[in-house]
Structures are given as structure tokens and as C-alpha cells.
Amino acid sequence: MEKRITFLLEVENLKTYFFTRRGVIKAVDGISFYVKKGETMGLVGESGCGKTITGLSLLRLVPEPAGRIVEGRVIFEGEDVLKKSPAEMRKIRGSKISMILQDSMTSLNPSFRIGNQVGEVIRLHGMVRGRTLLQKVIEALRLVRIPAAETRIRDYPHQMSGGMRQRVTGAIALSCQPSLIIADEPTTSLDVTIQAQYLRLLKELQEQTKTSLLFITHDFGIVARMCDRVAVMYAGKIVETAETRDIFDNPRHPYTRALMSCLPKIEVQLKILAAIDGQPPELGDLPPGCRFAPRCSEASEKCWRYYPPQKVIGRDHGVSCWNVHQYQDGESNRGS
Amino acid sequence: MAVYSQKAFKNLCSIASTMRGAPKIPIVILVMVFMTAIFAPLIAPHSPTVGSLPDRMMPPFWAKGGSLNYPMGTDALGRDMLSRVIVGTRISLSIALLAVFFAGSIGTIVGLVSGYFGGPIDVFLMRMVDIALSIPLILLAIILAAALGVSFTNIIVVIVLLLWPYYARQVRGETLSIKERDFVLLARVANCSHTRIIWRHILPNVVPSLLVLATLQAAFVILVESSLSFLGVGIPPPAPAWGLMVGEGRVYLATALWLSFWPGLAIFLTVLSMNLFGDWLRDRLDPKLRQI
Hints:
heterodimer; A: alpha/beta; Rossmann fold; 2 domains; eight-stranded mixed β-sheet; four-stranded antiparallel β-sheet; 23% strand; globular; disordered C terminus; B: mainly alpha; MetI-like fold
């Protein structure tokens, strides 16, 4: 009775390890998630938890030779990306999956004019030249609302503001109509007003183009406004995944709860911002049990020994925690 | 019409602003040196290689026994010093440019490949660089001169062998830092080949520092060529190379100072101007200052 829904992207038990002199760093350690067509999937977690490496693994661009995808399947449009030849892989990159990165300053090549950089991607995939290419470049820049695109194509990256530059990288990512865009903290280098503007633009463009978005961030505020579903990562594992509304209404994993309680609320005046005690574990020296156990107030003997399997506790809601039933009881008691 | 002149004015202004703070005297000297090199046979009043023996060892024109016919005097074979210095410019500069060009090309390719691909290729190429740097130049020049004879080509080969490792190291270092930047990763996401990334995305970002290195090294090449010619393993006589002329004049240093003075002055002015220009270029192209 297995009902098989075809997702745009399905990641199963993906493991990306780094083999260093100091041992094996398990940056991504057996994560599974999926992205539906046209939706925004958020990948949340603190820095160093493997979010970025997950993104790079999907494109098979993990920094070699230290990094290697050791296990797992990445099914993209029905085919396993990890089994593709380098030539097939190159066809996917840029035209089917593209990326927006954190720092707009280094995302663009300082030696080239904006127009050339946008044009390069279009030329590589679209096989157009000359005037048509120029027209397409201007269209791409207009799409991301760059004013006076005709003259702006002659600008160098340093002549643009951070927000503008990030829009240009957005234009590059969108220019080949990819079916998936991996956005790796695209707003961290922008200030708050520009951030909101950029997110709105991204959202609109996504609705227009029906592109799926894998949104990597550490900011639950951004998750709330951008994402349909969200996966919370901790130390290389996904600890909880749910629809965005679900996770805000009903966070189950202690880590998710802790993160939520760190969010400053507008109605409560705080003197000191809440923080989670302790440090995330070293990815080269992981505890055998739950990775959050050392920082978890509810951790029991079992938590320290064994890693909890993922439990499905609702529609599209999965949690990896031994104590999850207790919470469920707790919640229902409070509710009644 | 008005639009055109306005545009021309704008261009002039932008050139002026680019050149702001440029060392004026060195640039004037360099332009003169280059012009002299290009038009050497037209400017030189006498033949640089054929002298008239009755006029031998004439001092410069202001000294007793000098003549305006030979403003810088003549050498032991009665050859006009001025003509020799002028034609020598052409030799020195062409050696400098050719050597820097070939060394720069080889070094840049090695550096780019080494820095970009890393791993065993990097180790191998960098050991080659170390080996090349450990060969004593003068010794190599003398061996080559003994084995193949002295010639224009040989001296360029020797200098290229000496210079390319510096480019390789510099370019490798910069490549290492540039390839870690996000636009290189994005270029890979956008399906650029390695060759394309190296040529289109990394090389243009290395060019400014290459230019600086090339300017400074052009000066160095002139010095090296002079030293080699002075030792007799550089440009073969009777060609009027500056270093060779200084060397020939050494015997007469006590009686006829001008024989070594003029070519020495030419070397000094050219090298100093190139170095000052290179220093300015380095400040000008400094990545931290470039954004302003």
C-alpha cells in the first residue's frame, strides 16, 4: 500500500564526510529530506552543522580531495545525481540546479562587467549570441528589478551596492530557468531593510517561475516568511522536519524548542537574549547517542547511548528524539 | 560635433585621473627610452659598429679635444659613443621585453595550473620551481656560453630560465586565494569547464599583480643582461649592448671615464625609472585601493 509521490528532489541517507589528518569529519551524516515542485524548503541550523555541505553535495561540488560523499542517494527529477557521469552532471549544474551564495561581494568576479557575467551563464546554456544575448541579459536583470538595466550591464561589481549585487547573483541563478535553486544564506550579507526587500523579490520570482527553493539559513524569522516546510539540522543530522506552521505551533525536538525560545518576541521585553548552553559537538568526535544530549535538559541514559530513529508524528512531521512521546502527552494535556 | 568633443574631453579627464600621482619624470624617461629603441637607426648619427680610427678615444664635446661631431666622445676603435648607446637601447629593451614575456607566460601557466589543481601536480611543479631557483645564474650562463656560444637567443633563454619561477610562485599564490572565492564555485555551478574557469575567472584577477611584477622584472632583466655582457657571456661584441660597453670601458677607466660612464648612466636611468614606475603601478593596482 505504498503510495509513491514523485518529488523534485529526494535525498536519502546522504553522508558527506571529510577525511582529514585529524580524523573523519562527519559534516553530513545520513540526512533524508525531499523538496516538492514549486515549494520552498528551509534548512535551518547553527553554523557548522552541515547545511552548506548539504547544498554542495546536491551538486557534487564538495571540496575535494578531503570531502567525499560516502553514501546515500540524491534523486533529482527521478534520477540519481550521485550516479551521473561528470558530463551529465555538468548538464544539470546551472541549467537545472543553480545556487545563490552568502556573500555577494565574492559571488561576482571583480574583473568583469555585470553584463558579461550574466551573459556567460546564458551563453553556456542557451547557445545565443550577439544582440539576442544582450537582450536576454537585460531581461534577466529587469526580472530582478535592477533599475536602468541597459546601463547597469556596463557596471563592475564594486560599483553596485550589496543589495544590487545580490540581485545580480539572483539574476544569474534564475537566468536558465532552473527547477531548483539552492539559496545558501543569501541575505546574511545584506542589512535588514534590504534583506526584507530581497526576500520579497525572491518569493515573487519563485511564484512566477514555479521554481523550487532550498533555502539554507540560520534565521527562523526568515523561515517563517519564506518556507513551506523546514528541516532543522544539528551536527550533521536532521533532527526535526515539518511544515513551517507546524514547527512554529508545535516544535517537538528539544533543539527546535531551544532555538524557538532564543527568538526574541516582540511582546516580551528581554534584558538578556536567551541562548542554548554549551557548544555543538565536534563533528570529528561525535557522541554515539543523540548529538544534542549534552545540551539537552531532558536527556536520559538512553539518549546518551543510542541515536534516536526518526518518528513520524503527524502529516509531514518527523522528529528524531527518544522523548518525543512525552512531549506529545504534555501537549495534549495542556490542550485539554 | 559638440558631443564628440565632450566625449574626448571626458576620455582625457579619465586618463588624467588614472595617471594622478604617477611619477612624471620616470614616465618621461621611459617614453624617451622606448622611442629611442624604436627609432634607433634613424636617430643614431654614426654607425654603432664601424668606427674611424683617426678619431679614436675622443672625449665628450665639452672636454679638451672633444668635438660636437661626437657629443659623447668615441671609444678605442673610434666608434661614436652616442650612436652606440642609442642602438644599445634597442638591444637592452628587446631582451627585457622578450625575456619578461616568455618568462611571464611560462610562469603564469605553471602557476595557474599548479594553484588551481593542487595535489600532486602542484607538488611536482613547485619542486620544479625550487630546482630552477637553485641554479646559479652566472654559472648557467657561462656553461651555456661555453656549450652553445654566446648569442642573443641564448641570453634570453638564460634569463627566462632565471625568471619564470618567480611568476609561477606569485601566480600560484594568488590562484590559491582566488579559487576559494565564491564566484569560482558559482562558475562551476554554472557549468564552466576548468580551462574556462582558469582563463576567464582566475587569470584576469591575477593580471594586475603580473603587470607590476613584469615592470619590476624588466628593470632586473636589463641589469642581469648588463652583468652577463660585462662578463663576456652575454651579447657578443661588436654589438653595442650597454653592459658590454661598460665592460669594454673598464680597461680605460683611469684615462677615458666616458667609455663606461654613458652606458652606465643609460642603465641607471632606465632601471631606476622602471622601478619607480613599477612601484607606482603596484600602489595603483593594489586590490585594497582599487575600489576607490
